[in-house]
Hints:
Structural class of chain A: mainly alpha
Radius of gyration of chain B: 16 Å
Largest sheet of chain A: none
Helix content of chain B: over 70%
Number of strands of chain A: 0
Oligomer: heterodimer
Strand content of chain B: under 5%
Largest interface: A-B, 53 and 53 residues
Distance between the termini of chain A: 39 Å
Strand content of chain A: under 5%
Radius of gyration of chain A: 20 Å
Helix content of chain A: over 70%
Number of helices of chain A: 6
Number of domains of chain A: 1
Largest sheet of chain B: none
Number of strands of chain B: 0
Amino acid sequence: MAVFFCYNEKMLFEEDLVVANKLSILIFAFIGGSGRYWIGQSLPATMGFPWATVIVNLLGCFALAWLSHAKRLTAHWPSAVTVGMGIGGIGAFTTFSTFSVETVRMMTQQQWGAVGSYLAVTLIGGILCSALGVWSARKWATFPVIEK
Amino acid sequence: MMAGLAGVGAALGALGRYVSSQLVTKLLGTRWPVATLLINWLGSLLLGMLTGWQVAHAMMVLLGTGVLGGFTTYSTFSHEVVMLTDQRRWGMALSYLLVSVIGGLVLAGLGVYLGMRFSTGR
Lengths: 148, 122
């Protein structure tokens, strides 16, 4: 009887986690997506250069990398919050499709300088921001456990 | 109002990304970040099609900025590249980066072309 209960509770627990992850992703992605729209509205492209997408993607790169490695902080929360913030919130805040289509648009307008600088800033800047996020989270958020 | 529309779309897109990346990972494994690659490729193609088709503004905000913007992700892509270099898998990091970006551009361009064809053929 006890085994039966334990088995059932464990199954129920895993089901709950999946539902909690999905709900959390929906809520945080709503915030992330509308935040990206809001930044796009307040920062229109100057001279055809999509600053809003650059800023959104670079900020998101740092934030996701930091959150993924800041185990000391995220260990205090339910895992659904971390999943929701990372996959939902930051994942929906940043965008790959707009980046691709904007680059194609600048290519068809033959703005090669803008194409080159957009690709370079997004790709190299994104990698640097992600690396900075990983590095800073490992440095500051994983201090050694103090044993009593 | 429009921001809410983008938010609702992004929530659905992000949920779609979560579910489909779990499915792809289950089918193909995690040796190569293929789930993010396929998601970003598909999203680039579809956003290209919406752009070429020149759909109404509210529709573009809901489906383009919202659903496809939330479905595709740049932060995960960049983090995966950095984690591959962290594991000293340099060749894989570079090929993942190039395949994602060049494939995304080709598919976005193809999408714009297909969308324009479709809109003039209406």
